[in-house]
Design a protein that fits this description.
single chain, alpha/beta, Four Helix Bundle (Hemerythrin (Met), subunit A), Rossmann fold, 2 domains, 7-stranded mixed beta sheet, globular, binds 5-S-methyl-1-O-phosphono-5-thio-D-ribulose
């Protein structure tokens, strides 16, 4: 495997997990020690760790951290206690399907395994590690396939992205930023335009930080500047990640992605979604069925210690929106880039 970034948001340390505290970046780079199921659930909820694949990986380790505390030698009793652990983790964040996918994979694997409870605990740890390693390989494959579909241009590419779908959001390479990284290494990238991504500012804080780590030129714009930049011909392609993709290709991603896709269609700029097959929820026929997380309004009305709005105002704070498949030029997966209508062909490849 190629050497990749030095940014690993989730690190297994032999008996505990270290998470990069993504709420502290870019002001400070600190890691948080996670030694229990409850700490992991809280870290996912409070977005110390975030981004669909990274949430899945963290939940998988959370399952192990919970499982190792179970005091029984009886397999049935072990599995029934494990289901309670799964339930606690499922309740952390509702939209990113990787969370549910990873939990189900852990449960399925352990149900099929044989041996003592001690052995089953070991199987859980190994499965979490496997999910993590596979994600690195998956993201690299996404990057390589993405490079092939980026449009030919007489100059180097200016790629816009929204939120953070990078190393921090995955095992350590990125989906949308995986494509960006491949373009950079191939000498095809001029710069990244990173949407600030209100209200939590993942673009301003995290995507820009990741680009700076690697020397990739990056320009941060506020979300409401996107259509203007597209109109001026400043952007050649848009690549975003995904939190859940329905069977018809409708894609849930960070709030504001839909606005960007509409603006891209109007200006005839290709709009790509980069995501692993584990982000596709074939059980959902369309994006209308994707649950959308609503978060605390404080994310809207307060910046740092400053309250922005007068008392008496109400708020609506959906964390994600759904971009209809017809606005998406292609979905770039580890199996190649497909038209959203073709996504269904990959169904049998989704083993878990
Ligand atoms: O709320 P977040 O920060 O977890 O949202 C993250 C995103 O929307 C990402 O674009 C998505 O999870 C893809 S990460 C490869």
């Amino acid at each position: 495997m190629k050497t990749i970034t030095e940014v690993y948001p989730v690190i297994w340390k032999g008996d505990r997990v270290l998470l990069i505290d993504q709420n502290r970046l870019p002001i400070e780079y600190i890691t948080v020690e996670i030694t229990s199921l409850e700490e992991m659930a809280q870290a996912i909820k409070t977005m110390i760790v975030r981004g669909a694949p990274a949430i899945g990986i963290s939940a998988a380790y959370g399952m192990y951290l919970g499982a190792r505390e179970i005091q029984t030698e009886n397999k049935q009793e072990f599995l029934s206690q494990l289901e309670k652990i799964a339930q606690l983790l499922r309740a952390t964040r509702p939209t990113a399907v990787n969370l549910f996918w990873a939990i189900e994979r852990m449960l399925k694997t352990v149900r099929q395994a044989s041996g003592s409870v001690e052995k089953l605990k070991q199987v859980l740890l190994e499965t979490a590690q496997l999910i993590q390693v596979e994600d690195l390989q998956t993201c690299q494959a996404i990057g390589e396939h993405g490079l092939k579909v980026l449009p030919p241009t007489p100059h180097k590419l200016r790629i816009q992205t929204h939120c953070n779908a990078g190393a921090l959001a995955t095992a350590g390479y990125g989906t949308a930023l995986g494509v960006v990284r491949e373009a950079w290494r191939a000498g095809r990238l001029e710069r990244v335009y990173a949407d600030e991504t209100r209200p939590r500012l993942q673009g301003a804080k995290l995507t820009s930080w990741e680009c700076v780590q690697e020397g990739i030129p990056v320009t941060v714009i506020t979300d409401n500047m996107a259509a203007h930049c597209l109109k001026l011909g400043m952007i050649d392609a848009i690549v975003v990640g995904a939190d859940r993709i329905a069977a018809n290709g409708d894609t849930a991603n960070k709030i504001g992605t839909y606005n960007l896709a509409i603006a891209a269609k109007y200006h005839n700029i290709p709009f790509f979604v980069a995501a692993s097959l584990s982000t596709v929820d074939f059980k959902l026929a369309t994006g209308a069925e994707i649950p959308i997380e609503e978060r605390d309004p404080v994310e809207i009305y307060q910046v740092g210690d400053t309250r922005l709005t007068p008392p008496g105002v109400e708020f609506y704070n959906p964390a994600f929106d759904v971009t209809p498949a017809e606005l998406i030029s292609a979905i770039i997966t580890e199996y190649g880039a497909l038209a959203p209508t073709e996504l269904i062909k990959l169904r049998e490849k989704q083993v878990f």
